[in-house]
Amino acid sequence: MVTDVQRKAIRQMRLKGLGYCRIGSLIGLNEKNVRAYCKSHGLAGDSDLVRLNYPVWCKQNNRCPICGTKIDQPKTGRKKKFCSGRCRTRYCREQKHY
Predict the structure, then answer these.
(1) pTM of the model
(2) Quick one: which of 49, 55, 70, 94 is 20 to 30 A from 88 by CA?
(3) Cα separation of 14 and 8, whole Å?
(4) Residue 3's pLDDT is what?
(5) How remote is the C-alpha of 57 from its chain's centroid?
């Protein structure tokens, strides 16, 4: 069973380019558990391709590009891009180049 803290750590490390075995040893999980989580959350494959394709995967699967949580889309109106205001603010701060 993967906890919320481990999920965040896996996502961050995978987007930085670390492999399944290395991630597993750092957070105390089996390599197979890390691989299964990555496969089901769009983080599987070559790390360079994951970094490039992750935003597209999030958009296609109604996921927040910052934290990866599922977004409940409204039936009418504009589609949501982020799961919360916190993620939207974090995204905007990361995009600014000072």
Answers:
(1) 0.69
(2) 49
(3) 10
(4) 87
(5) 10
55: Cβ contacts below 8 Å, ≥ 6 apart: 65
Contacts of 79 (CB under 8 A, 6+ apart): 73
68, with CB counted inside 10 A (0-12, 13-18, 19+), is buried
Residue 28's alpha-carbon distances to 2, 55, 60, 70, in angstroms, are: 10, 27, 31, 25
Q: How far is Cα 66 from Cα 88, in angstroms, rounded to an integer?
A: 8
Spatial distance between the Cα atoms of 65 and 83, rounded to a whole number of angstroms: 9
Cα 43 from Cα 20, distance rounded (Å): 10
Surface-to-core class of residue 58, CB atoms within 10 Å of its CB (0-12 exposed, 13-18 middle, 19+ buried):
buried
User: How many C-beta neighbours within 10 Å does residue 53 have?
Assistant: 15
For the chain, 98 residues long, the average pLDDT of each consecutive 10-residue run is 88 88 92 91 84 84 88 92 93 79
Longest CA pairwise span in the chain (Å): 45
